[in-house]
Amino acid sequence: MAIREFRMPDVGEGLTEADILTWYVKPGDPVVDGQVVCEIETAKAAVELPVPFDGVVREIGFPEGTTVDVGAVIISVDTAGSAGAGASAPAAVPAVTAAPAVTAVTETAVETVDEPARPERRPVLVGYGVVESSAKRRPRKPANGTAPGGRGPAAGPRPLAKPPVRKLAKDLGVDLTVVRPSGGDGTITRADVHAAAVVDIGTREIVDRPAAPPAALPDARETRIPIKGVRKATAAAMVGSAFTAPHVTEFVTFDITRTMKLVEELKSDKDMAGLRVNPLLLIAKAVLVAVKRNPDINAAWDEAAQEIVLKPYVNLGIAAATPRGLIVPNIKDAHAQTLPELSASLGELVSTAREGKTTPAAMQGGTFTLTNVGVFGVDTGTPILNPGEAAILAVGTIKLQPWLHKGKVKARQVTTLALSFDHRLVDGELGSKFLADTAAILEQPKRLITWA
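The structure corresponding to this sequence follows.
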C-alpha cells in the first residue's frame, strides 16, 4: 500500500493560508492525475486544486469552511493500484509527520511488503512537476531560551512566526527571540506578541498581561460572519493603505451629456457589434488618454529604495463587488488597446469576477484603479488607494440636473468624479491636471481623438 499526501500549496505570492470552500470527492472515490478535488479561497481569489496522481481517496484532511495553513496535508490518496481498482476503505495508517514548509505533495510507504520510504517531494506548480527536497523540520526553541542539552542561550534557530506576526512584532518593537511561543511546534502567535508588548522598559523582561474581562454573550438576534479570505485581505490592505499613504481627494462635477450621446451611437456601430458599450467604457478610455497626458500619475512609491517608480504601461484596475468581497482585477496593457478591445476586456473582467473565477495573477500588477460607485446611486466618494498605486478615480451616478448650457439653464446629464492620490508622489498640480483632463475629455469626447 502506498499513501501519497497532497498538501495545501501557496497559489499566490507568499500566502500563508487558504479556506477550503468545497470538496468534490470523498473517501473511497477514485481520482486521476489532474482531476480537480476541491476549491479553495485565498486572500486573493478562489482557486480549484487538481490532484497530481492516480489512486483512491483515503482521507480528507479538513472539512469545508476550514482555514488551512500552507503546507498542511489536505487529502491522502492510496496509489497502490489504479484509481478504478476499488474503493474500499484501507486499514488505519500510522501517523505521518507533516513538513512545515510549502510542500504540496509528499508520499509515504505503508508497509504491506518491505518497501523503502520514498523521499519527500514538493511541486514546481500547483499539483504538477515535483523535485526532491531535503527540507527538515526546524528544531523547536525551548521556552526557557536555552539550547538543547543545557548549553546556555540558544544562538541558532530563528523564532518560528508567520510574516504578519513578524510585522506586528516589528511595529510594536518586540524582540521575537524573547517571546514565549504558545502555538503548535513552538510557533509564535499574535497573542504572544501582544502579551510581550507589555514589558518593563528598563529590563525588557516579559510580564504577564492582566486577564481580559469576560466577553459579553452575543445577542441571539445577531448574525456573525467570519472575516476570512478575500474580505480579510481587503480589510488589511485598506487599513495599510489608509495609514501608510497620505491621501488627498479632489472632486469635479461636469456635464457628461455628449459622452452619453456617444454611448448610444456606439451601440449601433458595426465595429462594436456584440460588445457591451456603456459609460464606464468611455470613462476608462478617457482615463487612459488623461494618463498619457499626465504620465507621472501612473506611478508607485518604493518605500525600501525610497524611489518613485514611473510606469510606461497602464494596467487598469476595475474595482468589482463580488459575493466574496471587493476585488480589483486589472486589464493588462490597457493603454495599448483599441476601443473594441477595451470593451471586450472589460466584459471578460466583469463576467469572470461575478463567477468568482478571477485568478490571483489578474489582480497583480495594477497601476491605476477605476471604481464606479455611481451604479449604486451614489453621487461620489473618497476612495482609498489600491496598495502600490498612486491614484484611484471614483465615478459617481449620472443623472439629469439643471445646468447652464449655452447661456441657458437646461436639463443636462451631470456626474462627479473623485480622484484620491498619494501626496508623497503626486502633488496638487499633477492631481488637478489629471482630473481636469479626464473631465474635459468626457465633456467633449472628440478629445478622445484629438488628445490621444
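Confidence is low (pLDDT under 50) at residues 83-155, 199-209.
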